[in-house]
Task: structure prediction
Amino acid sequence: MNLGRRRLHLGVLFPVNPTTTVWQGGMPGSQIDFAAIAGLAVAAERGRFDYLLLADDLRLPERNGAVTEVGVAGRHDLLTVLSAVSAVTDRLGLVATVNTTFNEPYDIARQLATLDHLAKGRAGWNAVTTPDAWVGENFRRGGFLPHAERYERAAEFVGLCRAFWQGGDGTPSAHQGRHFRVEGRPVTASDGTEPVLVQAGDSEQGREFAAAHAEVIYSRKKGRAGLDFYADVKGRLARHGRDPGQLRIMPAVTYVVGESRAEAEELARARRLEIVTPQMATHYLEALWGCDLSAYDPEGPLPDIGPDLDGAAAFVTGRPTAMDARRRVDRVAFLRQVAESRKLSIRGLVALVTHTKALAGTASDIATEMIGYVEAGGCDGYIIVPDRAPDGLDDFVEHVVPELQSRGALPAEYGSTGLRGHLGLPERLPARR
Ligand SMILES: Cc1cc2nc3c(=O)[nH]c(=O)nc-3n(C[C@H](O)[C@H](O)[C@H](O)COP(=O)(O)O)c2cc1C
Result:
């Protein structure tokens, strides 16, 4: 193996999704506990991670018209939270998810510039576009933007933020587009850097937006799909006058370290069952069946009744999406077949079908796999999603990070103070006027 030829990049996601992570002491409350966020940030910094990423939605998850149990604690404003994290860390990049459909460029440019200033060049922005009417109900412009136009708005939004950030010489840069007409006066005195732009979509327009603007892609692509995605998106950069080194593609992965590969794989299976609680298993089926299944024991066999094809939407957790009836019927038939052939309970079945492959093995196995996939052209690094919280990154920092460092894939010390430096990106982008 060509060890140390390329370094890889690491981010960590603060895990607020109950389908990926078990929270010690229960999730509501813990997910907004500053000590949990700060603890994860400090652990990541000890492991020389490039950044901490916080995800967001502008509406809490609901089910049947009420906020779900895990949603009741609410979700705080990420830029405010990251400002506090900046005070307990020195080097770690701080990436906030901020929506381009429901905000205004000037406000966001100013808030991000403030974080970047407080954190001395460590801010990043995961620019997301979610345009739907469900989130829109919280905003004046509820559902106003057709799906096809959201990235058009996002591109104007990002261009304007950059104009605001780069207006340090005091020259206004007037912008007249479909979505905004703004003078583009400087937002604040510039420190000579600007937040790193992260993108996390996968449609054709999402990929084009990333190729034109993004400096990091937060993806979910692994294996063969990841290799194709990497080649496709990196191949688009030249058309936008960019070099492949100006974009880091980083898939989200979870991990399980064991004394042996077999032990780690067994642990991964056990953790999956722990994550899929009886209630989560029942809810998973209810979204497909479209009716109340609380009378069925999650440790018992699948319901003997068929799906109610009119009732699905109310039983979905989160966005009430209307699911295609044909696909639901096929999915139910598939689940029955898997449950019967493997003799699985409802919970065992849901744990199996919602499983995404973790990096499982000894610390050395995990390091080998991570480096190998970077060298094969699958990604430039990883966003680690701990499957336990709040201390779920500790194992990784203690065991896997030293392996990566000994192979030259991760530096022993930070070589730069800001996020751009950690990611090997230019300190300052060319002016966009
Ligand atoms: C890995 C990944 C993570 C995402 N995280 C968020 C998030 O935290 N908040 C959000 O509003 N949207 C999030 N999104 C949604 C995207 O930003 C985007 O709005 C959505 O994927 C639709 O874009 P697309 O059609 O290009 O895929 C995420 C998407 C992906 C693929």
Residues 55-57, 97, 99, 128-130, 200-203, 206, 218-220, 252 surround flavin mononucleotide (CB under 6 Å). Residues 125 and 197 are 5 Å apart (CA to CA). The chain has a mean pLDDT of 90. Residues 277-353 form one domain.
